[in-house]
Specification:
Ribosomal Protein S5, domain 2; 2 domains; single chain; 279 residues; alpha+beta; Alpha-Beta Plaits; 10 helices
C-alpha cells in the first residue's frame, strides 16, 4: 500500500528564540511511497529526505510534491526530512504519534538544530529544548492570526549564515534575549498580542544577518507601522515573517510591498496547528 505524509513549512527563531522557537505555517511538503504521481518529483538517493527515510528503516521508491520555497528560510529541508521520516515510520507499522520521538531525534540530528523540525512535526508554535519539542499554548486570538511572509528573490544558506555569527555573546545581549523570549512565550500563553510588541527584538543573530538581506530591515519596520504585532527574520532568512491580526493582514502585506527597495513578494499564511500527518 502506498502512503502519503503531509508536513507544514516552518519559521524559526521567531526573533529572540534563537535555535529554540519554531512556528508551523500552511505551506506543505507531501512525501509518498511508490511511483511519483503527476506534478511530483521522484526522490533519488542523493536527496536529503532519502537519507532520513532509510535511517528509520524506509525502503522503496518515494516522491515529493511541495509549495515550500527552497533556501528562503521557511524550513524546506526540515519539512521534507520530517515527512520522509514519518513515511518510514508508517511503513514499519507505527503511527506518527508512536514514532514522534524517533522522527524528532533523527531529523534534528541531520538539520543540525531542532527548531524547524519540531514545529513541522508538532504544528503550532514549539520550543525545542534539549532534544525535546515543547508545544506552546495558543489561544484563539493568536492561533487565528495571519503570518505575512515577505519572500525576496534570493536564497540564503543556513550554514554560511551561521559563519557570520560570533562564537561569544555579551552578557547584556544574553539577558536581553532571555527577557524577550520569555515575553514572547507569555504573550502566547496569555493570548495577549499586546505583549508581542518588541518580543521578537533580538541581539544574537538578526543584527548580523539583516544586512545580508537588502530591504529586510525596512520590511520589518513597514510591517510594524502598518499594524503587525511583531516581525522577525525567518530562520536565517531571507524571508521576513510578520505576525498580525487576520483582519489587518492585507494592509500589512500591501505596506510591505510598497516599501520600494524591498522587491520580492508576500504571502498571507496561517499558523498550521496540526503538524505532520498522514493523508
Amino acid at each position: 500500500m502506498n502512503l502519503v505524509v503531509r508536513t507544514p513549512a516552518s519559521s524559526a527563531n521567531l526573533g529572540a528564540g534563537f535555535d529554540v522557537f519554531g512556528m508551523a505555517v500552511d505551506l506543505y511538503a507531501d512525501i509518498g511511497s511508490g511511483d511519483a504521481p503527476d506534478g511530483a518529483l521522484a526522490i533519488d538517493e542523493h536527496h536529503p529526505a532519502r537519507t532520513v527515510f532509510e535511517r528509520l528503516g524506509g525502503s522503496g521508491a518515494m516522491w515529493l510534491r511541495t509549495n515550500i520555497p527552497m533556501g528562503r528560510g521557511l524550513g524546506f529541508s526540515g519539512a521534507v526530512r520530517v515527512g520522509a521520516a514519518g513515511l518510514a515510520v508508517l511503513q514499519n507499522g507505527r503511527t506518527l504519534a508512536e514514532g514522534a520521538d524517533d522522527i524528532l531525534a533523527v531529523t534534528a540530528e541531520y538539520e543540525g538544530h531542532g527548531d524547524n523540525v519540531a514545529a513541522s512535526l508538532s504544528g503550532g508554535v514549539t520550543a525545542f529544548v534539549q532534544g525535546v519539542s515543547i508545544p506552546m499554548r495558543l489561544g484563539p486570538v493568536v492561533s487565528g492570526a495571519a503570518f505575512v511572509a515577505w519572500i525576496p528573490e534570493v536564497t540564503t544558506s543556513t550554514d554560511k549564515s551561521r559563519q557570520a555569527l560570533p562564537d561569544l555573546v555579551r552578557r547584556d545581549d544574553a539577558v536581553h534575549n532571555i527577557g524577550r523570549a520569555t515575553q514572547f512565550a507569555l504573550a502566547l500563553a496569555h493570548d495577549d498580542p499586546t505583549l508581542l510588541t518588541d518580543a521578537t527584538a533580538d541581539r544574537l543573530h538578526q543584527d548580523a544577518r539583516l544586512p545580508g538581506v537588502p530591504g529586510a530591515a525596512e520590511v520589518i519596520a513597514a510591517g510594524h507601522a502598518a499594524g503587525a504585532w511583531c516581525g522577525w527574520l525567518s530562520g536565517s532568512g531571507p524571508t521576513v515573517g510578520l505576525l498580525v491580526a487576520r483582519q489587518a493582514a492585507q494592509s500589512v502585506a500591501d505596506a510591505v510591498e510598497a516599501t520600494g527597495s524591498s522587491g520580492g513578494h508576500t504571502k498571507i499564511l496561517a499558523i498550521d496547528l496540526e503538524g505532520c500527518r498522514q493523508i
